[in-house]
Amino acid sequence: MRQSEQWNGLNRLTTVDELGAAVGHPAPAVMLKQISALDEGCRAVLARCPIAAFGHRDADGTSRTTFIGGRAGFVRVHSPTRISFSLPRPGDPHGPVSFFFLLPGVGEILRVNGSVATRKEAVLTVDVQEAYVHCAQAVLRSRLWQPPALAAVPAAGITGDGPLRGPGVADFLAAAPFLALSTADSSGGSDTSPRGDREAVARVLDGRTLAIPDRKGNKRADTLHNLLRDDRLSLAALVPGRSGVLHIRGRGAITDDPELLETMALRGVSPHLALLIDVEHAEVRGNDAVARSRMWAPGVHLARGTTPDLMALAGEHLAARSSDASGLPPAFLLKAIGAVPGAPRLMRLVADRLYRSGLRKEGYEDAEPVASRRRRGFLRRRPADGGHPAAGEAAATAEHALRDVRIVGVRKETPGAVTLALEDAEGDPGTFDFRPGQFFTLVAEIDARPVRRAYSASSAPGSTRLEVTVKHIDGGRFSTHVHHGLRVGDRLSVRGPSGSFHAEPEPPDEIVLIAAGSV
Fold first, then answer.
1. If 0-12 CB within 10 Å is exposed, 13-18 middle and 19+ buried, where does residue 207 land?
2. Around Cβ 353, how many Cβ atoms within 10 Å?
3. Torsion-angle region of residue 144: left (phi > 0), alpha (psi -120 to 50) or beta?
4. Residue range 451-499, pLDDT digits in tens
5. Contact 440, 498 (CB under 8 A)
6. How far is C-alpha 240 from the geometric centre of its chain's CA atoms?
7. Can you tell me the distance from the alpha carbon of 104 to that of 241, in angstroms, rounded to the nearest whole number?
8. Residue 244 — φ and ψ, nearest 5°?
9. Which among 115, 32, 4, 116 is positioned nearest to 321, based on CA atoms?
10. Are 227 and 212 in contact (CB under 8 A)?
11. Considering the entire predicted model, what is its pTM?
12. Quick check: helix, strand or coil at residue 453?
């Protein structure tokens, strides 16, 4: 018996009534947050957004999900109901399409659905049919905007054959806390929603089966309702700090099997359902939009006031549609409340408290909203003069954050040693500050996996160019890649400086230095 047959024997939910009994029914406000065109707030979000998930189906019905963009304002807004953007291949979108737009450092997400109007070469034009704000739970669960982990979680052994045994797939899944999942609704409309969880958002059951926990949310459950009618799906997964994306296509089903759900419990709290995916295709590919967006680079996270508060924007959308449903305050009252000085800030505080409470009920111990961490300085930039009391905190964040760099020179020092000259990949004039005795960690993707090695700088502190010298080691994976695989123009990531082997704040009167070496 193939391993997949074991999971095929799990109880499946196949009717709307069964799903409703398991999930419950959403509040009226949850179903009234869509607007039919891009208002001023939505357009302001798109102007600051550098990256988006994009889901669609090709003419042959193949479902695809990927990440697009690469710079803030990559979407061109022609009118409240029409946008365009550059879309690299593969993929030939036809009919309905869907997006969700990410703002670095922000929890809430702007979702937009529509249909293809035209495609001229690489430019796709889309007619917008609806837009709405999605809650921050997926981002918070995944810790998407926190500094990337220092090391990937090693993948467990996989039983059975299948696409999940492909190069780099299992290791990527073991480290991916966040993904975009695309399905189609009963009318054929496209829907791409975020999913996030601690450690790995999707669990590998065997070589062709994935399980994604469905924890308690706003009870809307669009993805699950869609799968009852059309089980085709696709997803694109992210690992913070990496530029690669894992693309998966397959068919989905919903299960409430208690033994399986128990394996996904957090502090004894199991998810109420799980999504089972029979994987047909899985592949890790580099993604230029993710690399160029610099989502996890220091200083990229948006400061408060530079973009609309999406929770306040959601309130405006609800006020605009409150007259469409009973049980809600009239539109004029909601608008009046929103116009009260301090109301948006109060809404944010209330929302953060609700996020924290909801996530703790799901089993998350350290559930803290993104906005709260930003207020406390977690995402604060280091001041130019370095004199702010939080300078030490910013330095600690910089030590663990990744900075994208470009190789601008390769200098052969000896037959077995080369020096790499590195500059900021986006031309940022900032310097590489460090103290003598500290080191930097270089990160390169080799065979779809991040490989890290620590090196001391061979350049002076405070320069806009960082130099590191790498000695070739027989059988050394990273040094072999440096000596034989890297060229001028290639990109790496750098973490640091790190290490406390230096005198601080001032050197003592007497220092003993011991030097050693090897041939």
1. buried
2. 12
3. alpha
4. 999 999 888 777 778 999 999 999 999 999 999 989 998 999 999 888 8
5. yes
6. 6
7. 13
8. -80, 160
9. 32
10. no
11. 0.70
12. strand
